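Re: Re: ligand-bound prediction request (bumping)

Still looking for help on this. To restate: I need the protein modeled with guanosine-5'-diphosphate bound, output as structure tokens. Inputs repeated here so nobody has to scroll up.
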Amino acid sequence: MTVAHDFSPGELNREATFYVAGHRGLVGSAIVRRLESAGFENIVGRTSAELDLKNRDAVLGFFAELKPRYVVLAAAKVGGIMANSTYPVDFLSDNIRIQVNVLDASRQVDVERLLFLGSSCIYPKFAEQPIREESLLTGHLEPTNDAYAIAKIAGILHVQSVRRQYGLPWISAMPTNLYGPNDNFSPAGSHVLPALIRRYDEAVASGAASVVNWGSGSPRREFLHADDMADACLHLLEHFDGPDQVNVGSGTDVTIREIAETVASVVGYTGETEWDTTKPDGTPQKLLDVSKLARAGWTSKIPLSEGLERTVAWYRDHIGSLREK
Ligand code: GDP
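Reply:
Sorry for the wait, this slipped through. Here it is.
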């Protein structure tokens, strides 16, 4: 039998079982750190080797046994602009299956509070900036990540449908470009910030006279540290309820050229930078309107300069053990 829960703002129960899907990734690992620091005692995670979220029977069985009270769905197949445009089938199929399995399984055990995470690429390519939540489904998607975006839009609809059909107070949040520890730093698969950190750091180590970045350098992107994102997630779970997705960002953006210059200076690179315009630029600007989040009581706390320094330090500590795809 399905029981509808009413939402009332306030602290989640620190003793309840809290499942973080994707607990080793950039966002999931930050959420685990945040939950630990907030005093949660029963945080559960499974690696993909332990539980393949694309396997429906395995996921349903896992949930039936664990019966988590809270869930964050931070597991997804993610990647930068080249990975997304080269392997669209994987991004569509894997993400739809992961979402449908985790959301169906959560519904079967009446998860009381669930946060579904997507990405700012769900919005139309030429959405008015900064992008408001209401822009969803008002225009064509950016082709380099349309498959991923459609999967994530399906997830938002799934959460809204569960709310409508079963009355469970689940919510969705759409982060801007995130960065931080446990990110993917592989040159072919990563997003721009880890790619730049690695490229410039390797150039310093090798004494290279120039590096080549992708695209024109003119697109604008907004960056948020994963620890800020995790803090926002817990805040939303404890204080926000509503069917529509909530944007999570820092509220300011920079050009790719500017962020490249900043990374170069943080790692100590003094050589030349060239731009390979045969590589795609993607959408010209992606800056989220974060006023809904501010109304819900949360704003970003980690400045980009501090977040970058921390991420470069983490990268240097983990050079030998980074994932390679
Ligand atoms: P997007 O935000 O979905 O477009 O994804 P990315 O983070 O992969 O790319 C953001 C922007 O950075 C695009 O304009 C890329 O062309 C540019 N960029 C410059 N150099 C790189 C690089 O080495 N890797 C990636 N992924 N993007 C780069």
